[in-house]
Amino acid sequence: MRGIIYVAHGSQKSEKNQKMQLFFETLKAARKEEQQALAFLEKHPDTLALMAQKQVANGVKELVIVPLLLFSAMHQIEDIPKQLQTIKLEFPEVSVLICPTFGQEEEVVRVLTENIKSSLSANQLDHPEVLLVAHGSSHYRQPADVVKRIGRQLGDCSGLAVAVGFLYGELPYLEQATDLLKKEESLLIVPFFLFGGHLLDKIKIQIAELTSQMAKVSQVYYAPTLNLDISMTTAILRLVDQQISITDKLNK
Q: 148 and 218 share a domain?
């Protein structure tokens, strides 16, 4: 029997976890597996290890792990496998399949594109500088490569030049913002995050400090986050189907 565990980051704010629960319910309703659960990597009692143990106790022999994460970095490469070690040791007969992250999928790019367009309209912006800001990583290149590619796609879709910047790793977003504000008086920041929260708050504070120190007056606008747009469930479900199909073919 196959079980599916969707793995979210987890938040101290209960409203974020509740919204993730609703997102999970949409995913769950689209699949036929009886054993489906939502787990959190941190800040929540429903850990991945606990949910996996429950499913194995209910007879699951094939665990499909679905990261509800945008990029393949520390959580995907290190944290999820580490939390599954106990299951693999205690139940070697149980197979474990970890699906890819979904930040690169077309549905995500579509949401970002609509966020840019709606922000241009709402703020009556013509041709502002646009900065796509993501978390980034000091240890893994894949997130930066994905965001750079998406930045080019967003530029093609919007007709604007879209720069990219990161909180961590290469292309520090503050340096990118400084360079862009030297060119134009208006800057649209596009947060590449599932939610708003402390990271976006940090960006807004640091950008406000930056503009206060600049000689010329600048206007900075913010597009919405992805805000767990329900259309992204299509991308996640497609990735699950693809990975299960590949595994089934390999096992024949």
A: yes
CATH of the domain at 29: 3.40.50.1400
- What angle (nearest 5°) sits at the alpha carbon of residue 98, between those of residues 95 and 99? 135
Our count of domains for the chain comes to: 2
- Average confidence (pLDDT) per 10 residues, the chain, 252 residues: 92 83 97 96 87 94 95 77 87 92 96 96 92 89 90 93 94 95 91 92 94 82 96 97 84 68
Residue pointed to by tokens 């299960």: 244
Report the alpha-carbon distance of residue 209 to residue 33 in Å, rounded: 50
Q: How far apart are CA 203 and CA 217, in angstroms?
A: 19
Q: Which domain holds residue 86?
A: 2-101
Strand intervals (E) in the chain = 2-8, 35-40, 62-67, 95-98, 129-136, 162-168, 186-191, 219-222
Q: Specify whether 17 is located in the same domain as 89.
A: yes
Pairing relationship of beta strands 129-136 and 186-191 according to DSSP bridges: parallel
Quick: pLDDT tens for 52-107.
Answer: 999 999 999 999 999 999 987 677 777 888 888 888 888 899 999 999 999 999 99
Q: What's residue 252's pLDDT? A: 65
90 and 110 fall within a common domain? no
